[in-house]
Amino acid sequence: MSVSQRSASRLNLLILNFLNRYGSYESDPKWEIRESKVGGLGVFATCDIDVGELVFIDSPVLLGPRCIPDCPLICVSCFRQNNLASCNRGCGLPVCCARCQDASAHQRECKLIRQYRSETLNDISSDLFENLTPIRSLLLHPDDREVVTSLIAHNRDQHGHEVTTLKSLGFQFKEDDEKFMRFVCCVLDANAFEVTLGRENIKSSLRGLYPLGSLANHSCVPNLVHTFNHRHQMVAKAAVFIPKDTELFHSYTRLIWGTTTRLYHLYKTKHFVCKCPRCQDPSEFGTYMSSILCKSCRGIVSPLNPYKSHGKWQCRDCKKVILGREVGELTTLLGAILRDIDQKDFKFMYNFLQGKLKTVVPEYNQVTVELKYKIIWHLGHKQGYTWEELTIDLLEFKESLCKDILLLLEKLRCGQNKIRALLLYELFCCIREKRNRSKATSRNPITNDMDSYIKEAAVIMEHDVGAPEEIINLLEHNKDKIPV
Ligand SMILES: C[S@@+](CC[C@H](N)C(=O)[O-])C[C@H]1O[C@@H](n2cnc3c(N)ncnc32)[C@H](O)[C@@H]1O
């Protein structure tokens, strides 16, 4: 499709037909594709949408492994991780059983691979596995090909390297196929989502191209929350109340990153400068997530202009001005310590959080927030710190960290997002553990908020294949009791 044909009305028709083909068609959709003020086309609400309400369900037009170094291997048919062996027809892709090996979709890609690379492989090729998704695009039905061709593509040098890797593995593609695959790589880089697989012991995830999902633009104050269900469909719900005619936004970055990091990440990966209300506010809605503390008076130092992180930063209290370079150096140093921390023990994390960090950055600085997040996932989960092993003090410490980050998310106007759901569940587990112990020692129960925490978590994570098992069971067995 040429650029001039890329009109909103054409895209509406294409996407509706696509959803129809894949069984997620709605007779009265709550969305419409229109020209966006932020960039190109976007998706808009055609009616008021309540918080938590379903906005759309989208199917992947293309789904396959992610192209990241050392991506954990999974079966290319069923995406499971167990009993992997190389396909015995010699394509070099991992499959888990004869049924997956004989699945028609795999047979087609296997044949194509053997056609394009004469050498047969007896072992699994992880290079081929990581670069399989563009090969899959050659097998698209012409109608789906038209959908892919209608999506925007990034055209910088960094995109399309997957095809170069495949050629270095001995693939000799027809010219048209190579051109199309390179284009698809550029479309994937502009639009693809990371798709969670959900099984708790699977570390891998997929790369999926969701036509409707990908037409929604980005905001760091998103009004959509999306999850993936067991059929790998994207389920988009309203994270906040969305009035009619409002543009629908996902977040393409992590919500608990500060503005400097988010802007850099969005520019590097998606090549645009976000102008959302959070990015424009030097205080980030009063959270000061990118800020540091003033060396002179311990006041909060924030950028005069968030879009010039290397420009001038000023202390809110003593008004002293410093250069962004100084802030950058401290943030880089703290970031490096944080990255290293996985190997260190809990005591180190605890002392760093309660000690040094408090003297150099404000309480919601992104490094502090990331460290608190790490500690939350350490306590109750890691060896030596399982729920039963935690002291009451540690349970209460974890509880306070969960509440702290939930408050931050509220300040950031995030609504019903996935981090909120996970934190609510962790909070529920803390309080349940405390209650169980107080029962054992016949003291009175401490609190009874726990039911509301798990219920809200369940409402947010409905349709989420990555939800904790207890939430999935709750949704399956107590449907009537949960106000979904
Ligand atoms: C997944 S696409 C979104 C749909 C796109 N607007 C279109 O017309 O197809 C991502 C691209 O949209 C643009 N975009 C998304 N959010 C944006 C924003 N907040 N500000 C500016 N451009 C944005 C950028 O070009 C980005 O690379």
UniProtKB/TrEMBL annotation:
It holds the Pfam family SET. InterPro entries: SET_dom, SET_dom_sf, SET_SmydA-8. Residues 29-253 form the SET domain. GO terms for molecular function: N-methyltransferase activity; protein methyltransferase activity; S-adenosylmethionine-dependent methyltransferase activity. This is SET domain-containing protein. It comes from Rhynchophorus ferrugineus.
